[in-house]
Amino acid sequence: MRRRTFGLVAAALAAPGIARAAWPEKPVTVIVPYPPGGNNDIMARLLAPTVEKEIGQPLVIENRGGGGGTIGAGAAARAPADGHTLLFADIGILAIAPHLFARLPYDPDAFAPIIRLTEVSLLVGVPKDSPHRTVADLVAAAKARPDALNFGTPGPGTAGHLATQMLMSLSGTKMTHVPFRGSAPAAQELIAGRIDLLIDGTLLPAVNQGQVRAIAVTGASRSPFTPDLPTVAESGVPGYAFTSWHGVVAPRGVPADAVQKLNAAFNAALREPAVIERARQLGLPFAGGSAADFASWIQAERQKFGPLVQASGARVE
Hints:
Largest sheet: 5 strands, mixed
Signal peptide: 1-21
Number of strands: 10
InterPro entries: BUG, Bug_dom1
Shape: globular
Order of helices and strands: HEHEHEHEEHEHEHEHEEHHH
Number of helices: 11
Helix content: 40-55%
CATH topology of the largest domain: D-Maltodextrin-Binding Protein, domain 2
Radius of gyration: 21 Å
Family: Belongs to the UPF0065 (bug) family.
CATH architecture of the largest domain: 3-Layer(aba) Sandwich
Strand content: 15-25%
Structural class: alpha/beta
Strand order of the largest sheet: 2-1-3-10-4
Keywords: Signal
Protein name: Tripartite tricarboxylate transporter substrate binding protein
CATH class of the largest domain: Alpha Beta
């Protein structure tokens, strides 16, 4: 009898037309593939309250750092595609790493785009007591002593890594790479003066507090958040332009209704006045838009960074 009852229930659940429970059925896990303190982590925690209100379930944020974000991305790619696991991804994971790493713990196409959150011009930061007050100063010192200066990054394959590789390539310099497990520990080493350079998107608070000196921004134009800072191109490295970005993805195969609800919830969070003000303080300009927009953006960025990574000579085995 038990066997027959189980069989009838199983058949009924598998029958066409039987509606599954409405998404979300439980809390949604958000994998942040970097340690606490970086932009991905900040964005996740900043947007979570509004998103939770919009979808009616809590967001459980899990920091899984390492491998320039690839370890956390691999965990997200292997999660069930039911809409209850998200990844706070970025340019490094979705556009740079496929060209930079010889092996990845995930298929770069294993994700369904949800929304692009930001497009960020990075800050070129040096210790507050550094003798290098401009990019030209830094380039001159690096040319005079190849590999003597060291630069930090949040890890191999991150935006800061490739942005610095691009700087070295276009300026004809060589510096020594010191990778960290995220932006926060790299920034602490810069503040302490133990590294000579960090190009990163999380430095604005430290700059405003006088802990770090910013000497340029990486975008093609000056940032509205730091209008007095020149671009790297203005500072003597013609052709240099680099912006980072962040976005939310889910394992490929996630239900369409979950994508739609998540996209609407995150767009709502990006419109919250308090969220906008906090993002302004952090130097994080918002993007937003549809899931389809983000899908097109990822493909275009991946195609753009293939030649850039190859030209930089960067490779992680």
